[in-house]
Specification:
Helices cover 72% and strands 0% of the residues. It is mainly alpha-helical. The chain has one domain. Helix 2 runs antiparallel to helix 5 and helix 3 packs antiparallel against helix 4. The chain starts with a helix and ends with a helix. The model has no long low-confidence stretch (mean pLDDT 87).
Length: 180
């Protein structure tokens, strides 16, 4: 593995992790996102919060696969970068979601920071993907320690836990945004 591949992979993982954490900090009803969205239909807010939760948690989970040098994870990281960019720009440009309340300064700062992070995330993800498609790219496969059945049980358990956490976040965020 070349130094550039090593460096690029860790850049993607780091930017993806920071971006996921930054977005996670903006859950409505939390200390940063305090605006009211009572005028937006609850179903619309629920769908939007589902997208944001999937993006935040998915980014954090994707870090693992980026570090394993999975080719598809580089594409996923680039799509996450594009999604972060779109979400932040839409809010900063007052496209969606629109609130009658002013944007708190901490929210503005994190959204600008997130927008700026999304650009190198997309760039490094594209570089990592290009490197991954070259024949010199070496995938980091860990030795098989667990049995296949144990691994499947762990994956199912992890999926259920992530699903419960995601559903809890979506319900909390939608409820808080609606001011219920």
């Amino acid at each position: 593995m070349t130094f550039q591949t090593f460096s690029t992979k860790y850049s993607v993982a780091g930017l993806l992790g920071i971006s996921g954490i930054a977005l996670s900090s903006l859950v409505p009803g939390g200390p940063i996102e305090t605006r009211s969205f009572t005028h937006i239909h609850p179903l619309t807010l629920g769908i939007f919060n589902t997208f944001l939760t999937t993006l935040a948690l998915g980014s954090l989970i994707l870090v693992y696969f980026v570090l394993k040098s999975e080719r598809w994870a580089m594409v996923g990281a680039a799509l996450c970068g594009l999604s972060f960019f779109g979400v932040y720009v839409a809010d900063l440009a007052v496209i969606f979601p629109v609130s009658l309340d002013a944007m708190p300064p901490a929210l503005l700062a994190i959204e600008i920071f997130g927008t700026l992070l999304s650009l190198p995330l997309m760039w490094f993800s594209a570089q990592a993907w290009q490197t991954a498609t070259q024949s010199t790219f070496i995938s980091a496969n860990a030795p098989q320690i667990q049995t296949q059945k144990t691994s499947q049980i762990w994956q199912i358990f992890s999926g259920i836990v992530v699903g419960i956490v995601a559903l809890s976040i979506i319900i909390f965020a939608t409820d808080a945004a609606m001011g219920l």
